[in-house]
From TrEMBL, chains A, B:
Organism: Hyaloscypha variabilis (strain UAMH 11265 / GT02V1 / F) (Meliniomyces variabilis)
Cofactor annotation: Mg(2+)
The protein's name: Inositol-1-monophosphatase
Residue stretches in coiled coil: none
Residues the record lists as binding Mg(2+): E84, D106, L108, D109, D263
Organism ancestry: Eukaryota, Fungi, Dikarya, Ascomycota, Pezizomycotina
Length: 341, 341
């Protein structure tokens, strides 16, 4: 039987998750200090001096996950916990999320960025109930910026500003909420990632991605009519932050395959609460008319559209669905499966 | 005859440029407030309410350039000024930089990001003497982060941190300075941009870029031996910030064509002072042995390699040159020319 929570309980969980994200981020920043040498000379013992950058990052990743898991276990001992590090170490790649209250955590998304001290990395914490992410926290510690949501209470950005904190509702452009371009994907910012599958094989994921990117980017009329002439193409190296920027309205369309639950759970919670849409990356047989289904957490295939305002003759939701279909006409299906899917 | 400046004069110019970048950034942030509505309800008159987002951005861009130009003219009336907005409005696309003391300014780089409130936009201010950028300031106002340099005095990042300011020397990873991977481009972060030229034409710039991106990304052995298996591909939508992140060591290789002087002048000053290398994007006839020439400001073709530490049997500079040649073997020459070039 599905467990239920009172409004007060959910608010407590949200407050706890926000604080937890920031404390976890502090550990990541301490790891950065070690590497830039600020604290390194003072604090590092002989043993740590022998660790190279990759060792430090791997250890920090494990430390942050252990910290987050401990804190959750102490406060909510009967909740389930799924973290990237513990999960990856196991052998099963089955769906692990059921109706139970479950925390889904990526202690460090954007590991390569973290290694290179590029600030586009984050802690991602989601609370999932009845298989739906209903609370999300994405914290960028180096920028001191947090994206978060509680179902029914809005999605928010908190950032450091003039020495204080400022809280803004997502999407950021909201007076009025920006409408989606009439000729979308033309005029849109398209967010995508090259990923790890780089096999140079016709029909492989890299080539399906590249063909899709070029379709979205090429001039109108190009690519046999598939040219989408997007306004810009962005690749940050963090799926979690791609979703946060979609929720903020900074990016319009995000299309990606291969992510796991912990990469997207918090982002999905925030995006939905901000008014965004998320469905499958892979076009159905008839992109023009087939139903646009809600994404399944763990499907590994994602197409997200930013929150959109109503305009004359079209609601925001209708505009989002129009953009989903225009994207589907231009992208190729990706091949990321999992046992049980 | 070339004009000379004393050390004290140059330090004054650097201090002035730093302050100017931050004040200009403040105007950009005020423009953001108008759009997110925080200040909008209070401050916007009836006329401004009628302006759409694009109008506000264009106006802000012009306002910032006018502000920067006025401040420079007041303090240094005998210096030349080249700004994106004033230059673009004119008809000439000749080289405009000579031996005179010249300020080269982009009031807003990453305009599309600014329109979408994605924080990867900046003010870029360079001071150029004898055709060489010797002072650079790149300020990201939404992140309150500044990259800057004065020739001979180092390159620096200043950012807001725990409510205060922190100054770090570039590159950020510097104890010891990170060495470049032995199998580069494998292991590197490759930074590139899709740009505005989207003609779907074999031999056009979009296809030359895409072929180059795929060569850099594909598995080792793929693409007829050209596969570079870079660790990650990043596209931010701001050439200026790409260069700042190369100087910081956050990105390893930046390859781009089509930029103008104001997009790169400050970044080149900062990158060189941090110990980076910048040359032409277009491979010479023999990439293995032809000399690696210093880039010409205004050539519109750029390949930048991050600062690199020495390792056994190889200086940092030798490693950078090795990476230049490995990149040249994988990229196709781009077609961006200018009158007088």
């Amino acid at each position: 039987m599905a467990q239920t929570f009172t409004e007060a309980e959910l608010k407590d969980i949200y407050t706890f998750a926000l604080d937890l994200g920031r404390r976890a981020g502090k550990i990541l920043v301490d790891g950065v200090e070690k590497r830039t040498g600020a604290a390194g000379a003072r604090d590092m013992g002989k043993q740590e001096e022998k660790m190279n950058a990759v060792d430090i990052v791997t250890q920090t990743d494990l430390d942050v996950e252990a910290f987050v898991k401990d804190e959750i276990n102490r406060k909510y001992p009967d909740h389930k916990f799924i973290g990237e590090e513990t999960y990856s170490a196991g052998s099963s790649k089955q769906y692990l999320i059921d109706a139970s209250p479950t925390w889904v955590v990526d202690p460090l998304d954007g590991t390569v960025n973290y290694t290179h001290l590029f600030p586009m990395f984050c802690v991602s914490i989601a609370f999932v109930l009845n298989s739906q992410p209903i609370i999300g926290v994405i914290h960028q510690p180096l920028l001191d910026t947090t994206y978060s949501s509680l179902v029914g209470y809005g999605a928010w950005q908190d950032d450091a500003h003039d020495g204080g904190k400022q809280r803004k509702r997502l999407p950021l452009v909201n007076s009025p909420k920006a409408i989606l371009p009439k000729e979308a994907p033309k005029g849109c910012i398209f967010s995508c990632e090259w990923g790890k599958d780089r096999r140079d094989k016709e029909g492989g994921n890299m080539w399906r991605k590249v063909n899709s990117f070029v379709n979205m980017a090429a001039e109108i009329g190009g690519r046999g009519g598939k040219g989408g002439m997007v306004h810009g193409v962005r690749s940050l190296g963090s799926a979690t932050l791609d979703l946060a920027y979609i929720a903020a309205g900074s990016f319009d369309i995000w299309w990606e395959g291969g992510c796991w639950e912990w990469d997207v759970a918090a982002g999905i919670a925030i995006l939905r609460e901000a008014g965004g849409l998320i469905t499958s990356a892979n076009p159905p047989p008839n992109p023009e008319t087939d139903p646009i289904e809600e994404v399944r957490l763990g499907s590994r295939l994602y197409l997200a559209i930013r929150p959109a305002g109503d305009s004359e003759g079209e609601t925001g939701r209708q505009a989002q669905e129009r953009v989903v279909r225009e994207a589907w006409k231009r992208v190729q299906g990706l091949d990321y499966s999992r046992p049980g899917a």
